[in-house]
Amino acid sequence: MKPFVYDLTLEEWQAWMKTNSEAAFRAGQVFDWLYVKRVLSFEEMTNLPKGLRDKLAEQFEFVTLHEIAKYKSQDGTVKFLFELSDKNAIETVIMKHSYGNSICVTTQVGCRVGCTFCASTLGGLKRDLTAGEIVAQVVKAQKLLDDEEERISSIVIMGIGEPFENYEATMNFLRIMIHPKGLNIGQRHITVSTSGIVPNIYKFADENLQVNLAISIHAPNDALRSKLMPVNRRFPFKDLIEACQYYTATTGRRITFEYALMGEVNDQPEHAEELAQVLKAMPLSHVNLIPVNYVAERDFKRTPRDDIFMFQRILERNKINATIRREQGSDIAAACGQLRAKHMKNK
């Protein structure tokens, strides 16, 4: 299979031009056609010599994202179910905020991490996406917004899959997104979320990026976290916290800890107190409390609203900064994995 045209960073395009005896400045022209003009064929790259366009067509493919379904929520959230060239399906979500448009992208077809409350893990991991298949989701969304004379202002890598198990593709995706000659998304407007792949948290800390890091934590101790998130058996809670401390010490940046509240599982006052004690060792941290999404194949129920506020108050009383995530797209199954799970079941 040919590589995708979106797989390459600008530096990799420059190297390709050199290898193929083309002028280095042609790399910038290709980048401009892909990410500023957002064309979908080599023939549209009219300032490139025909011989170069032919060469590109011989060696690269554009990513095929066939739109299986598109749903629009009452709150403006748009969710896509895309089919890839190999017939696998992925999800992408555009979220409307007062401060701009955010896109949530997928990094894998399925997920092997196995969180017991998440729809993304149903069916396991099929394969990693290439950097270009992740980039294509943003380009597709931006082309939709072009019609409304709007642009994507922020990116969250929180869709289907574990981005730190597809590390190199995720890093190339980031390099393409933040490049000033590309879509030029500000680094601090991008967030990567991981379930806690400890070795790659250390690697990410050393990347010298200003991209935000979020950690899915969901429990205050090893025993409960291992039940909810099997990844904790590979990378125990203590090791995860040490990696997070290294990250904040190295980058000076805050970590967001995501905590999905599940009724009578991890949402009791004693859980909040225990979590507060753990996070006192993490002064550069913030807790994002998330009411768990209903998944038909799972058995978890939502924490009552008053108990969510109580959990937040306990954390704040212990000097732990905590907010409650605003829900979006609940009427269109916008939480990651839900639409794909329904599609797989129907197939």
From TrEMBL:
- Top-level class of the enzyme under EC nomenclature: transferase
Q: Name one Pfam family in it.
A: RlmN_N
Gene3D superfamilies with a match to the protein in the record:
1.10.150.530, Aldolase class I
Intracellular or extracellular location(s): Cytoplasm
Cofactor(s) annotated in UniProt: [4Fe-4S] cluster
Q: Which domain of life is it from?
A: Bacteria
Which residue ranges does the record assign to the Radical SAM core domain?
Answer: 97-330
Question: Which reaction is this enzyme known to catalyze?
Answer: adenosine(37) in tRNA + 2 reduced [2Fe-2S]-[ferredoxin] + 2 S-adenosyl-L-methionine = 2-methyladenosine(37) in tRNA + 5'-deoxyadenosine + L-methionine + 2 oxidized [2Fe-2S]-[ferredoxin] + S-adenosyl-L-homocysteine; adenosine(2503) in 23S rRNA + 2 reduced [2Fe-2S]-[ferredoxin] + 2 S-adenosyl-L-methionine = 2-methyladenosine(2503) in 23S rRNA + 5'-deoxyadenosine + L-methionine + 2 oxidized [2Fe-2S]-[ferredoxin] + S-adenosyl-L-homocysteine
Q: For this entry, list what GO says about its biological process.
A: methylation
**Single GO molecular function:** methyltransferase activity
Q: What does this protein do?
A: Specifically methylates position 2 of adenine 2503 in 23S rRNA and position 2 of adenine 37 in tRNAs.
- Indicate the family of this protein: Belongs to the radical SAM superfamily. RlmN family.
Q: What else is known?
A: Reaction proceeds by a ping-pong mechanism involving intermediate methylation of a conserved cysteine residue.
Q: Report what the protein is called.
A: Probable dual-specificity RNA methyltransferase RlmN
Please name the source species: Paenibacillus eucommiae
What gene makes this protein? rlmN
